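Hi everyone,

Forwarding the result from last night's run.
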Amino acid sequence: MDLQSLYQLFLSGGGISTDSRNVKKGDIFFALKGENFNGNQYALQSLQKGAVLAVADDQRLPDHPALFKVLDVLDTLQRLANFHRKHFSIPIIAITGSNGKTTTKELIAAVLNIHYPTHFTKGNLNNHIGVPLTLLDMPLNTEIAVIEMGANHQGEINDLCHIAEPTHGLITNIGKAHLEGFGGVEGVKMGKSELFKYLKDGCIFLNQMDETLVSLSLDNKKKIIYTLSDQPDPNNALYEIKNLPTQEFLRVAFLSENGDYISAQTHLTGNYNLGNIMSAIAVGKYFKVPGDKIKMALENYVPSQNRSQYINYKGGKIILDAYNANPSSMEAALNNLFSIPHLNKIAILGDMFELGEEAPYEHKKIADFADNSLLSQVILIGKNFEQVALEKKWVHFNTATEAKNYFDSLPFSTSLLLIKGSRGMKLETLVEI
């Protein structure tokens, strides 16, 4: 069976499955392998469950008319995804960056989807498996696609670009994320900039306020430049966004297609989300989404999945930002907490992962940054924070489970809390929503 035949079967079938437990009748099962699993073991079982074809790379499997043996299952999945992508002559927008990828993707998708049939990455399926699956899930009536790309090693963004073949791209920022895999901040910069390099002759959206991104874009021929301005220039205001005074949530204004300013009250907190909002406005305006629809999309978007969620809890307020954390996003979240007027502010900080040999230094640096008179209390959770908690005589727990009873005793009704940590710390379990 060649790729064309596999594609025709894909078009006539039910879908793609990589988990034998969820195989549906008519699916094509791809027997992927990982550190703790081997899909080849379930290839024949998937056929019994109704899969029309099982793609496997264990040559020892017994022959079966519906078993397609290949050299590499993942490579076959990626090539099929690219083959499907080539059937679309539409804008494909790739988004990467150290922080804010998923929020930016969701905001941009919300703005575009209100005007065009838009396909976008669900959740954070943004790696070498998630991107192909996202592409293969793209309906034939799609007019614009928004593809999130994640990486923790150099070369990965380049590989994902050759699978998705984006026409447009955006980097949210370059920060201290996945330092272990990238080999330091310079490695992060090189890895994320692979998107701009791929789009040398394409189109990129560029936040002019980010000097690092500006320096990485020098070779890009087509740039849609956007910025924040308190006094937008009437002669150059198309992609200028104004940050308006607000209390809990960000409020912005932008120029409509009629030359009037439209204000939008969002459900996002923290200046670190301004860039995400600006990106969505710029992309929407570039693709000629009417201003009133951009406003509607921004105002209807409510963050979820523990990403900057501003929630009412037992009479008080919690900023639940426990999906992920690195030194850059941790500092930004603390800065936001510092800036909010409140008499009793408490920070609950969990370990940051994938920092390698920089972990002790970066955790101490964040603790020092949090050691601020603007906070009533700092509670640290995780083994990486243990030593600095002892030094500062702060409350410390190894896990969220251990911290639960103490957390429940906090004076919520008179407090504003920030909960921030890496996904593996499961800090969201502290909060009973």
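The mean pLDDT is 93.

Cheers,
N.
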